[in-house]
Every structure is written in C-alpha cells, then in structure tokens.
Write a structure and sequence with these properties.
heterodimer; A: about 250 residues; mainly alpha; MetI-like fold; B: about 240 residues; Rossmann fold; three-stranded antiparallel β-sheet; globular; binds adenosine-5'-diphosphate; binds magnesium ion; AAA+_ATPase (chain B); ATP hydrolysis activity (chain B); P-loop_NTPase (chain B); ATP binding (chain B); ATP-binding (chain B)
Chain lengths: ~250, ~240
C-alpha cells in the first residue's frame, strides 16, 4: 500500500496541481460557470448526479468491454490465420492497410444508420478500432520469431502447427500485449464518438445533452468520469498483459 | 540410436556471386569428433548449417553425403552458441522440445534420466532465466541428446562460458556424445586441442589438417601434448591473419 502510494504520488501531485490552477483561473478571471465551471462545482454536480452518471457510464463500459473483447478475439484470430498462410497475407494485408487508412470515426454515422441508436453500433465502432492494432501488432510478432528457434525446430522435424502454438505464439505475446494496450486507449474514444453520432444512453450522450442545455458542470463531470474509466481500463489491461511481456515469469 | 555414419561435405560456396570458400572436402569420421577452426566469416557456420539442412545466405555447389548412403539432415542434431532455450518453458519442457514439437508423447523415463545425467534434476521446473550460463548449456545439451541423433553439430557451443565451466562442459559433452559423429565449430584452439580426433583449419582457400595429440578425448587441459597442439594451432591461425 505504502509502496503503491510512493509510486503514485507524482501523478497525484500533478493532479492536485492542475486542479489548483483550474480553480485559480476560474476565481481570478471570473469566467461564467457555463463556460468553465470551477472544479469544486464539478465535484458537487458529480456527487448530486452520481446515479445518473453511473447509469450512463455503465452503458459506455459495456460497449467498450464488448468491443475490446470481440475486437481482440477477431484480431488474434486474423493474425494467426495470416501468419500461417503466405497466400492469405498477400490477399488480405493490403485490405487491412487500406481500411486502416480510413478513419474509423468517419464510419460512425453509417454504422448508426445501419445498426440503429442502440448498443450494437457503438460496440462495432470499438471492435473496428480495437481490431487493427491487435491484428497488426500480433501478426508482426508472429512473423518475427527469432530465427534460431525456427532453425532448431527444423532440425527436430517439427510440425508446423506445434511450432505455431509452442514457439511462434508465445514468442509473439509481448507484441500482442502492446497491441492490446494501444487498443484499450482507443476503445473508449470509439464508444463515445458512436454515442455522439446517435444514442440515447452512455457518457457521450450525457455530455452532448449537458452541453446542449448549458449544463457545463455536468458535461465536465461526465468527461472526468470517462477519463477515470479510461485510465482504469488502461491500468487493468496493463496488469492483465503483464505476464505476456515479462519473460522471467 | 543407430550406428553413427561418417559424413562427407564436398563442394564450394558463393555469396552474391563472390567466393565464400573454394572447393573443399570435409570428412567427418564415423563416431569421432572433428573440430573446425578458422577466422570469423570464413563460412564455418555455413558448412554446419548446410549439413543440418538449414537455409544459408550462401549458394552451395556440391554434395553432402553419409557413409551409409542414408539421408543426412534428418539424422542431425544441432546446438548453437545461443542456447536457444524457450524463456517461457521450464527446463523439462525445453529438454523435451523435440517430441513436443512433433506432437509425440514425451518419454518420461528418458527425460528424467537425461536430466540426471546433466545434473539438472532439481531444476526441472525452473525457467531458463533462473539458471547460470553453464546450467543453460547443460539444458541445451540434454535437449540435443533427447533427440538421439547419430550426427551432432555444435556451433561454438561453449564460447560464452567462463574457462572453468567451459572445460567442464567439454568433459560432459565428450562423455554424453560418445559413439556419435560430432562436428564442433570453434574459434578456441584450446578447445580443438582437447576435443578433436581430427582438427581442420579453414580459410577461403580450403582446409588444412593439423595433427592433434594421440591421447583419448577429452584431453587434459594441462597435458603437455594438448598445450603443444594448442600452440601449434595458434601459430596456424596467426599465420593466416598475417
Ligand atoms: N544473414 C546473413 N546475411 C548476409 N550475409 C551473411 C549472413 N550470414 C552469413 N553471411 C556471410 O556469410 C559468410 C560466412 O558466414 P559464417 O558461415 O557465419 O562464418 P563463420 O561461422 O565462419 O564466422 C560471412 O562472411 C558473412 O558475410
Ligand atoms: Mg559462425
């Protein structure tokens, strides 16, 4: 506990400093609260609206978790498929690069048009955002197996399937971990943009709603909630993937 | 293990149209240790990889054959300077890598016997990072023995070890690889003087045989004839550099 505190204190100090500056700007400039509410007011609004915020945050969290889970699974499956077949790689890799050049966010209106205002359009947004970094970095890892291992396997008359599962996949886990970590950063953004385009629930929807009614304090409260959720998600994914990265486990 | 065959490498190699080594003949006597010495980049590892049936940068023209007429590459066990232990697998899993990669069941008794012979019984469940350099090479040696191949190729296998551990590993390797046809690539004249039934110095022009001592291997590190042979080899290598 104390060690965790020692590790976290620079972040805590920085946060406190930022809050102090924020409060000072609001107090000194006398900027109206619908332009920039003071942190104390945001905290108060957050507390009085905690159940509403929690309900919307839950929706966003479900979208992100589903999107992250499905996107990661499909990404992993794609990487393995492509890693085992040169032919599939030649065929699919250009398509992958092309779809990545296309900003997924630009697809949000179309996805909403096709799938409606419900959960599925946001989940699909997240899936699309998560899919590429996971597939690309895992595939990269699978194609960069240390050649010495493959030489050794060859002199052992190894079967390709066994080489894949016992050497290539474990050797590529650090790459997969970095893909997952990257994906975890982008997934909440995907969900929120999906909600902006069209939704009746979720933190993104709440932010738009509050903004439209000049409830800037509520908008900030929702934004901070999203920020905290994203940080927790990042830390969670980091912790879950730690074993993939460390070789001395 | 079947009777170990002799191996003959006969041919020349080029890299990008330029000569790597001129036509040469390397004979590995059946059941004996052949040491291949030479400067960096003359193609020692290339020869070894050719025998093992591995890809090389060089284009080889010639023939690699076994004295009994059988295939070569499938009967070859290979051990490089890098021990190539899988960091995520235990010592036991690393030793049993061959059967695991072929999808065969691991012969538990043989595995336990090998671990005992290389003195790693207590470390069976450890990961490689928890082992010393010498212990890691023992795992690699046990993994090679698990394959039970009659021809063994060692590419500077002990060069990363300290002098004492290296000498111990040489003794252990000679004991455990008895009866097999062994080719050791080394840049250590002392190693060649201790281990070679036949010692070949390689240059781009070809091979020069240096007569090793008569004594059985592993020869004493402090034996007069070992030291004399080592000095002889050293002179050879320095003459090449000049
Ligand atoms: N991966 C590679 N790419 C390009 N050239 C290589 C590669 N590996 C080896 N070579 C070339 O092949 C020659 C022989 O290499 P090698 O057989 O490893 O030499 P040795 O083991 O005697 O030091 C070297 O001079 C080097 O230039
Ligand atoms: Mg070499």
């Amino acid at each position: 506990m104390t060690r965790a505190l020692i590790k976290a204190w620079p972040a805590l100090a920085a946060t406190a400093f930022a809050l102090a500056i924020w409060q000072a700007i609001v107090t000194l400039s006398g900027v109206p609260r619908f332009i920039l509410p003071a942190p104390a007011l945001v905290a108060e609004t957050w507390w009085t609206n905690r159940w509403v915020i929690a309900e919307h945050a839950w929706i966003t969290a479900v979208e992100v978790f589903l999107g992250l889970g499905i996107g990661a699974l499909v990404g992993v499956a794609t990487a393995i498929q492509l890693a085992t077949s040169r032919y599939a790689r030649l065929l699919v890799q250009p398509v992958l690069v092309f779809t990545q050049a296309l900003p997924v966010f630009a697809l949000a209106p179309i996805l909403t048009l096709w799938l409606g205002f419900g959960l599925s359009s946001k989940v699909l947004m997240c899936v699309l955002i998560v899919y590429f970094p996971v597939a690309a970095s895992f595939l990269d890892g699978l194609l960069r197996t240390p050649p010495g291992y493959l030489d050794l396997a060859r002199t052992m008359q190894a079967r390709p399937g066994q080489v894949l599962w016992r050497i290539r996949v474990p050797a590529a886990l650090p790459s997969l971990a970095s893909g997952l970590r990257l994906a975890a950063v982008y997934a909440p953004i995907g969900a929120v943009i999906g909600e902006w385009v069209g939704a009746s629930r979720g933190l993104g929807y709440l932010m738009l709603l509050a903004n439209g009614r000049s409830k800037t304090d509520l908008m900030f409260a929702a934004l901070l909630t999203l920020g905290v959720f994203s940080v927790l998600l990042h830390l969670g994914v980091r912790a879950l993937t730690r074993r993939m990265v460390r070789e001395e486990v | 293990m079947s009777q170990a065959p002799g191996i003959t490498v006969k041919g020349r190699a080029e890299i990008g149209g330029a000569r790597l080594f001129a036509p040469l003949t390397l004979e590995l006597a059946p059941g004996a240790w052949t040491c291949l010495l030479g400067g960096s980049g003359v193609g020692k590892s290339t020869i070894l990889r050719l025998v093992a049936g591995l890809e090389t940068e060089a284009a080889f023209t010639g023939d690699i054959s076994a004295s009994d007429g059988g295939p070569v590459a499938p009967r070859v066990g290979y051990m490089a300077q890098d021990d190539l232990l899988l960091p995520w697998a235990s010592v036991a899993q690393n030793i049993a890598l061959g059967p695991r990669l072929r999808g065969d069941p691991t012969e538990r008794d043989r595995l336990a016997g090998l671990m005992a012979r290389v003195g790693l019984n207590e470390h069976a469940q450890k990961r490689p990072y928890a082992l010393s350099g010498g212990q890691r090479q023992r795992v690699a040696l046990a993994r090679t023995l698990m394959e039970d191949k009659p021809v063994i190729l060692l590419d500077e296998p002990f060069s990363a070890l300290d002098a004492r551990t290296r000498a111990e590993m040489q003794d252990l390797a000679v004991e455990l690889l008895a009866g097999r046809t062994v080719l050791v690539v080394t840049h250590d004249p002392g190693e060649a003087a201790r281990l070679g039934h036949s010692v070949q110095v390689m240059t781009p022009e070809g091979l020069t045989e240096v007569t090793p001592p008569k004594a059985a291997i592993p020869r004493g590190v402090d034996a007069q004839e070992t030291l004399a042979c080592q000095a002889d080899l050293m002179r050879h290598l320095m003459a090449l550099a000049a």
